[in-house]
Specification:
The complex is a heterodimer. Chain A is α+β, with helices and mostly antiparallel strands. In chain A, α2 packs antiparallel against α3, α2 packs parallel to α4 and α3 crosses α4. Chain A starts with a strand and ends in a 12-residue tail after the last strand. Chain B is of the alpha/beta class. Chain B has 33 helices and 13 strands. In chain B, the strands form 3 sheets. In chain B, strands 1, 2, 3, 6, 11, 12 and 13 form a 7-stranded mixed beta sheet that branches. In chain B, α23 packs parallel to α27 and α23 packs antiparallel against α30. Classes of the chains: A alpha+beta, B alpha/beta. Chains A and B meet through β6, α2, α4 and α5 of A and α1, α29 and α30 of B.
Chain lengths: 379, 830
Amino acid sequence: MATVTLRKVGKVYQGEGGRTVRAVEAVDLAIAHGEFCVLVGPSGCGKSTTLRMIAGLEDLSEGTLEIGGKRVDDLPAKDRDIAFVFQNYALYPHLTVQENIAFGLETRRAHRSALVAMCTGASAERTAESTKINARVAEVSKTLALDALLERYPRELSGGQRQRVAVGRAIARDPKVFLFDEPLSNLDARLRIETRTELRTLHRRLQATIVYVTHDQEEAMTLADRLVVMHEGKIQQNATAQECYERPANRFVAGFIGTPPMNLVDGQMESGVFTANSVSMPIAAGPFRRDCTLGVRPDRLRIVSSEQPGALSATIATIERLGDRTDLALDTAWGRLTARVDAALAHHFREGTRVGVTVDAKDTHYFERGACGVRIDGS
Amino acid sequence: MRLHSANHTSAMTHATKTSPADFHLYSRAMSANATNASRWIGRTVRGALTVIAVLLVLGAFARVVYRTAAARDESDRAIELTVMHWSGEGGQEEDAIVQDALRAFERANPGVRVKRLNPGDAGSFYTKLQTMMAAGEPPDVFYVGYERVANFASLELLRPIEDFVAQEEALRVSGDRDALDLAAFYPQTVDAFRFDGARVGRGTLYGIPKDFTTVGFYYNKDLFRQAQLPFPTNTWTWDEYIAAARALGKLEGVTGSEFVTWPVMVRTYLRTEGCDAIDDQLENIRVAEPNAVRALERLRAWRHDEPNTLTSGKSKIATGASVFLGGKVGMAGPFGRWVVPSYRNIPSKEHGGFEWDFAPLPRGAAEANCVLTVSWSMARDTKHPEESWKLIKWLTNAKSQADNARLGLAIPTLKSVAASAAFLDATHAPANNQGYLDAIPASSVVAWPADPTFEQILGSTMDQGLKTGDLTITQAIAEFNAKWDAHVQFVPGGANPPRVRWDLFGGIGMALVGLVLAAFAWLILRSNARATARSEERAGFAFASPWVVGFLLFLAFPILLSLVLSLTNWKGIGPLEGANWVGLDNYAQLLARDGRFHTAFQVTLYYALIAVPGGQLLALLAAVVMMQPKVRGIAFFRAAWYLPSVLAGVGVSILWRWIFDSEGGLLNRTLELVGIAGPEWFGKDAARFGAPAFAIMSFWLVGGSMMVYLAGLQQVPRELYEAAAIDGAGAVRRFVRVTLPMLSPVILFNLIMAVIGSFQVFTQAFVMTGGEPGDLTRFYVLYLFNKAFELYDMGYASAMAWILLIIVLGCTAVILRSSARVVYYESLRK
């Protein structure tokens, strides 16, 4: 196991006609030994490119990369001692599960001992090596409940089984760092949730350093020790999942992390009153006075009687009942807002009825205007 | 620990599955939603398409019917004669001369129209003639080379013209000055078209000779002067000839003489030593007689033991008449007049050329020469014999012959014209026109057995003795005897084979067609599916029907017919009714006794063993290189590699004939540069290098395979390479462990196509070597072609085709079977 350190890492692609495309920009990231680090962001945000640069599948255009304190950005992938789990698993379709898991082990043995074997004709050594490999494959397949499937070919496996083989292939070599590139996205929703729990468990057992890429913020939050939110090639926030949720560093993170997403309203804050679209609501807030974006998580919106003074007047557009909770889409002068309420209260609401909305000052977030407007910490 | 339970995975597949009924092209839901307007448009378009399709089919047939009707109509009004000739060496000029003569004939004979066909060279001419004869519609009047008379007459394709000649004789006696007088022709040329059922030279007359030639050597006067040699005389001897050749060969960069060893020249050469390959009765083979062997041994020694005296065997292009043109060969022959038009293009000395002349064939123990001649003959089944005769008379009269003589291509057959200025034209080379005429008294027709196989076998074995030298003369003669014996002892179907029961086979054929139709009907009626499904099925069959009909008519029918034909002795010339039933005799002869067939098979196999693995390796390698995205201008290289495989076969073959030329060819020149003496690919080294030469040529054409490999390589998911790279595999291991297995179905496909292709080599060999020297580059299909279209043994050739099919099937089956374990199919699966 090892640390992974990226310093000012960037990736520039040469596009058509001399145009350059900057996929990753000045990424600084230090992943601790044994840490489960998740890179999350919408597609095209540079998270996969960053992962592939760590793996050695892409060259770094700028910056340096260290694994286990050793600079590796000039080493080929095979010499970085990492394992990579691909989105579509990339199992060798012509090899059995056993052979797939053993592939990396055999390749490395072949490299190491080919010369020795040639010189000494050491078939005994080879046999010993094969026995070792078989033992390792058996161990891994047992861990992943693949032992009954060893003689099968990938085409004979279900999606989940293939995914486990891919993981098995990664852990068989006992690498310093595991790299996962959206490994769950080809599974159906339920299996995805199950598998992510198993991955978490696996991580605890292996105490491995893991860099994991996903576009699914929920998956990211459940798995991550450290969450790295990326957008447009840059890191937006690098913190624990909880921190990202509670104190989003900027408007992008606020909108990206959390389901349903945070309500964001552009307006002006003045003397404890927030005004948007000429409609104001008194919110006791920090002593600032400026244009800003107000953010409130759906579950922090409070639904009150439409007559309550100071409340924002709203009409319930739709009601989504999710069993334990209910999401309300509210049409207000501030635009469409989402409120999440306890299912126990849901029977009070009818579509089309008028209600009032209020917000507690402690539940508000303020950001500079703009897509990535930074957090204003005056509140 | 279990990551999850496997049971959930089936949920998704269920969700995407839909009931089969939903897959219909025009589902009810769709048509229900469609507006009336769009339905109306759809119907109109469909209706219009149907009408157009029906009209197209009707139109195609209507044209055929109309043509037939029109033809019949016309035959009532005017007589139309079809005339066919070639214009190989004579070119466009000969074409024009025949054209003019025919137009003049039409003007002189109102009511007779002449349709002229000129397929090009003699080879194309005979192929066309065969096709027309097999179709039962031969041309009325056409060229026949003296060497084909026996064959054509014995196949009853030619109409005897004795009656017309007698009629002319009567007219002549009664004072008609235009009457044809056979005595005015050189008798040898007339006798060349007589055939008595066994041999040429006497018996019934089958044509009037239009022109002829004697043979001799063309010599380079400037080189003779340079070597201080006297010019050859019309009475020179072989000793003088070879002395001159040796002296010429000592000049810097000069070869003494080209001596072609075509069968007819070999026999004429033997005749100058008082012997022959076969006696005049065409019964006893004489080639093994001591003086014949001695004469042949002498020729072989001149060619092989003396450097620079005779040009040794080379590719087809470098033998024959054209070597003389370069001015580096002292003499060339034995050739007749036909080389004169091309030699007249040799510029004078001031313009970089040289002066040349002709000398008749040297004498040995005897004086001899041959008469090579072409007649105008008449088809046996012509509907207008009177008019055809008139036309033959017209085309061989003094006026036509004099016009023809202008070409310089041949000697007029009328003595008076030959002796006139029309032929003895002193303004053009050669000066020694008299030499051709002086050779006539001693010359005679070289008669061939009616079976053209004799000439082919003699040619190929003599090639091996005299040209390539891979056999001694004694061995070559033994080889000839063995092959000829194997051939003549083969009487398919025994002495009196029964006729083919075409009524029976016709019945079987009709029954088969009925069965197929019934099967279709059953397929359509059987289905108890819903109406929409049935209508779709009907539409499917309707759309497929043009192909099905085409397949049945143009593939299935000929294939089955060839199976029947392989059990007969059908000649491929004349109607099918003439075929006799011979059972499996053709197959037995091929497998057990036909040495030429075995040679052809060996040559083909030798080629395949080099061309298939080599070609596939090269194609794969090229594809891998073409896959490298970082190579600049890769698109250009892809196109450049692919280009040769879309070029026309004949043009490419001619190009490669030059490349393989053993003297001055690109390949041998290049080898010379690195210090390797290149082999004579199609000459004396043909036994070892002939087939490999074709394999090398095939390597140039791997672009097609390469494209398939390239497509296959692009199908391999990039992640597999990345996964392997991370797993520590280097480039070689990635190729072996990832690329090859993923590509294995493509490799299998290419391999099978290549194996099949390697058994079908034809164009290259046909154009580049014609199977020569000997039979050393006579590939399977080329021999099949020779048998079918040159030796007129279609039944035998059909049997060869079926054996080929079985060989290819066998190879494919073996490859498929043995590949099951190593070919991995998922890359093609979903």
